[in-house]
């Protein structure tokens, strides 16, 4: 796990001092080593967190003839096999690290090297001779990649805030991003919160040449359900997950594991058997899974390190968390993940985690339907639509939401695991200049169209693979672990595991009312106690709404010192929106949107746009960084 940043220019040679300043912004991604490359048209900065061939592997790394220069972030778990293949083709190596393998792979196969990699990655390769830059990102979007074209400059990097020190970077808030942030709880557009700064999509590659950028896809997800019997399917899944866990433990340093009370992380821990597992919780009933984690470790004879997060720690860490998040994200689990990473980083440099299992195997209850709902959906669609329209005009009553949803198609009512404000509500919150004619359906429609003939569950999973997983789950996982120079490895998000997951028909993914990802649970039966196999999904519960019902934190939210940059309607200040939403019974993410919206946006982005200073080297995460 590392980080890179840099820029190309068509005329003015890169300024080495500016490049170093850009690299310094992402020092948390790689404290073990730093490196810089410049020529008359390109500057690349790299920060390294080393795991393989610790004394070598310095980046940016050049080919023997100096033509190709690579900066790479990630892990290629099959690099040894590829290395042998390249040696047979006549290539020579001076290190035992995967970076050099990718570099030589590009020299041998060109862009096709990306299709051969098993792992997580984002990298750039500069061709000094042709003056062109190639970049690629892994199929799942585990590793980040941002880019921007501004005049004759082309920026690229692991985090968009690394572009800020460059005087040619135009700091401007992307006004359109705000509306959809209020709906999805994360930045859902391909363009980031910084205007003209884009994410390279998962499974995509780019080529910069003569000031122009060419984008293309090298990978796409497709489902291919078959009729493999459940017992055989469970055995197949157990085999590939076991192999993936083994591959993800490849390292010259110790690798730990995150552990909650759920089946996903429990299975990873049971297979990897790390020296230590790590867990966090809150001192409130229903919000502390450290007991389940400790109990499992006792059963499996593993060591668990855990801690309780206090409410004071939670609230005081928010400014630093938002800085490291790079873009606003109102997923409450971001905060405990920050503290969990901090805990693990005291002992290890890498951890295994269970992200991805829900998206691959259908683990979210919101993607499934109850037996009663399924029976209701069998009624004629015109009748259901009429009933839904009738219910929508009535005051809230039990079952109203199901009646409304039952009259709509998946394309009309589903946008993912978090639905905060609908289009009309978001428009009412924002000032006119921050509104957009686009709706959330404009964002989801292309993905639904790609699987238009699939069943509803498959459509929801396909959407999650392209929006929720890379833009929320994996982005917060990368940023919160990297805030503490900790590498996160996700064995479920592996190409061989995906081959098994894509073959599971929707009819096999759920049993009873609430047992999701059933084949994966069957695969875990020989490895986990029965209670862990059957345990319902909890997510990463946070008692945020309970805290705001206490006088102390209600007053804190009410008096929160927002630094709103004029994006909200005047009567909707940071000190009034959150408490008002809470009184109306809105859920916790909606409350955090209201309470912290001004600070999340203005604190990070207005500070940057107005020329705020970057944080000091001793940013602790316990106070407001100077960046704000």
Structural notes for this entry:
This protein is of the alpha+beta class and 628 residues long. Helix content is 40%, strand content 15%. The strands form 3 sheets. The protein has a 6-stranded antiparallel β-sheet, with helices on one face. The longest helix is centred in the last third of the chain and has 22 residues. It is globular, with a radius of gyration of 24 Å. The two termini are 27 Å apart.
Q: Give the overall silhouette.
A: globular
If helices are DSSP runs of H or I spanning 4 or more residues, what is the number of helices? 26
Q: Determine the mean pLDDT.
A: 86
Which structural category do the helix and sheet elements fall into? Answer: alpha+beta
Number of strands: 17
How large is the radius of gyration? 24 Å
Oligomer: single chain
- End-to-end Cα distance, whole Å, is 27 Å
Q: Please give the largest β-sheet.
A: 6 strands, antiparallel
User: Which parts are unreliable, with pLDDT below 50 for 5 consecutive residues or more?
Assistant: 593-628
Strand content: 5-15%
Strand line-up of the largest beta sheet: 2-3-1-9-8-10
Please give the share of residues in helix. 40-55%
Summarize the structure in short.
This protein is α+β, with helices and mostly antiparallel strands and 628 residues long.
């Amino acid at each position: 796990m590392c980080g890179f940043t840099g820029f190309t220019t068509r005329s003015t040679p890169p300024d080495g001092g500016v490049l170093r300043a850009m690299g310094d912004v992402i020092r948390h991604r790689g404290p073990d080593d730093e490196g810089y490359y410049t020529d008359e048209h390109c500057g690349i900065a790299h920060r390294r967190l080393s795991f393989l061939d610790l004394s070598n592997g310095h980046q940016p790394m050049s080919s023997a003839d100096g033509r190709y220069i690579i900066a790479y972030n990630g892990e290629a778990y099959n690099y040894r096999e590829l290395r042998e293949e390249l040696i047979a083709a006549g290539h020579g190596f001076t290190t035992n690290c995967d970076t050099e393998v990718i570099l030589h792979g590009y020299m041998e196969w060109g862009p096709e090297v990306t299709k051969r990699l098993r792992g997580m990655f984002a990298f750039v390769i500069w061709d000094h001779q042709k003056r062109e830059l190639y970049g690629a990102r892994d199929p799942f979007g585990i590793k980040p990649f941002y880019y921007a074209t501004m005049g004759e400059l082309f920026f690229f990097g692991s985090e968009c805030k690394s572009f800020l020190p460059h005087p040619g970077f135009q700091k401007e808030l992307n006004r359109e991003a705000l509306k959809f942030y209020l709906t999805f709880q994360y930045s859902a557009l391909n363009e980031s919160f910084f205007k003209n700064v884009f994410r390279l999509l998962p499974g995509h590659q780019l080529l910069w040449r003569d000031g122009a950028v060419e984008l293309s896809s090298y990978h796409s997800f497709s489902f291919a359900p078959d009729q493999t019997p459940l017992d055989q399917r469970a055995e197949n899944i157990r085999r590939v997950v076991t192999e993936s866990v083994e591959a993800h433990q490849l390292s010259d340093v110790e690798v730990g594991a995150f552990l909650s009370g759920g089946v996903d992380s429990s299975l990873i821990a049971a297979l990897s058997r790390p020296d230590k597992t790590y867990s966090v919780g809150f001192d409130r009933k229903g919000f502390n899974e450290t007991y389940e984690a400790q109990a499992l470790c006792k059963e499996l004879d593993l060591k668990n390190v855990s801690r309780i997060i206090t409410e004071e720690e939670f609230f005081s860490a928010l400014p630093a968390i938002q800085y490291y998040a790079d873009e606003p994200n109102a997923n409450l689990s971001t905060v405990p993940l920050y503290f969990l990473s901090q805990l693990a980083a005291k002992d290890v440099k890498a951890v295994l985690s269970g992200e991805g299992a829900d998206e691959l195997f259908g683990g979210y209850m919101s993607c499934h339907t109850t037996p009663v709902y399924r029976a209701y959906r069998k009624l004629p669609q015109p009748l259901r639509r009429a009933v839904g329209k009738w219910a929508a005009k009535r005051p809230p009553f039990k079952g109203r939401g199901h009646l409304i949803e039952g009259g709509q198609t998946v394309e009309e009512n589903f946008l993912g695991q978090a639905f905060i404000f609908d289009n009309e509500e978001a428009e009412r919150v924002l000032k006119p200049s921050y509104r957009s004619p686009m709706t959330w359906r404009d964002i989801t429609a292309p993905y639904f169209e790609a699987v238009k003939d699939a069943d509803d569950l498959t459509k929801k999973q396909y959407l999650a693979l392209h929006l929720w997983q890379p833009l929320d789950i994996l982005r917060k996982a990368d940023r919160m672990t990297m805030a503490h120079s900790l590498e996160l490895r996700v064995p479920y998000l592996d190409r061989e595991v995906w081959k098994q997951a894509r073959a599971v028909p929707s009819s096999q993914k759920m049993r009873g009312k609430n047992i999701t990802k059933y084949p994966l649970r069957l695969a875990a039966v020989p490895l986990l106690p029965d209670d862990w196999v059957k345990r319902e999904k909890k997510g990463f519960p946070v008692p945020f709404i309970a805290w705001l019902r206490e006088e102390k934190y209600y007053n804190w939210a009410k008096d929160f010192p927002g630094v709103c940059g004029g994006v909200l309607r005047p009567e909707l200040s940071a000190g009034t929106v959150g408490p008002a939403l809470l009184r109306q019974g809105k859920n916790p993410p909606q409350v955090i949107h209201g309470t912290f919206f001004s600070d999340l946006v203005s604190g990070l982005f207005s500070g940057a746009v107005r020329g705020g200073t970057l944080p000091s080297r001793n940013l602790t995460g316990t106070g407001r960084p100077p960046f704000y």
